[in-house]
Each structure stands twice: as structure tokens, then as C-alpha cells.
Amino acid sequence: MEFKFTEDNFKRVEESISKYPHKRAAIMPVLYIAQEQNGFISGEVMLEVAKILEITPEDVLGVVTFYTMYHQHPVGKYHIQVCTNISCMLKGGYEIYRRVKNKLGIDNMQVTPDSLFSLEEVECMGSCGTAPMLAVNEDYYENLTNESTDQIIESLKNNN
Question: Do 83 and 149 belong to one domain?
């Protein structure tokens, strides 16, 4: 299935490209626009981004696989990323990860049957001083406890 930007999103892509001296420098914002439109970064999305930015698909793949904010598979409405790197691990990151996993009934890189939640165990998210932490989409939650983790999940469930 071929991917093409909508007319409005293509204007956003052109606007992003215009902010840089070279097209390739706009790769991150262009990928973000593509992910907003498609829900995730598929092979077809990578090919279209490469064509627009006049770079190789391998260049695009390198960026997509390096940064955790780009998803290569569909994710839930609420994509929960739990940090289990050293600082978070020492302060209960694995306990928080297991708690989320058990509450949602899904494992790493899975989506709930209703597509409301997805879960991902990630490396450092830059919140070492306020560990343990998790992110829900673009929102960070730090200094987590079992109780605060439960509250976050319940509030998301009640938001629908």
C-alpha cells in the first residue's frame, strides 16, 4: 500500500524543509508528520520520506530505528513507554514495568485488543534524577510509585 502525504501535511512538510539549509536535515520533523498521519512509520512511509528528502531509504531507516519516538508498528491511543535503564532499574523501573504489563494484560510491543494501550520497555529517557519514570505519548511521569502508576492508568481508562 503506497503512502502519500495529505495536501495539508505536505504543506507542513514543505514548511519544515524550508527551515533547513539541506532537505535531509528536516528528516525528524518530516517523520513526525508522517507518523501523525499514518499512525506509525511503515516501509512505504520511509520510501516516501526518502524520496521527498532526496536521501536513501536506509538513511531514513537509521533515524527511525535510533529514536524511540518513531514506531514501526501500530501503537495504541496511549503508548506507554517504561524506562528500565540503570537509574530507573535501581529505583524500581522493572517493578513499574511489570505493574503496567499486568494491569493492561499485554507484553512489550503489544497493543490491547481495544487498541487503547500499547506498551514498550525503553532505555534511558533522560529522567535519571527523577526515576523511575514512564511516558504516555508525549507526557512524562516521574518519581513513580505503584499507586501513582495505577492512578495514571485508571485516569487514561476513564478518559475514554
Answer: yes
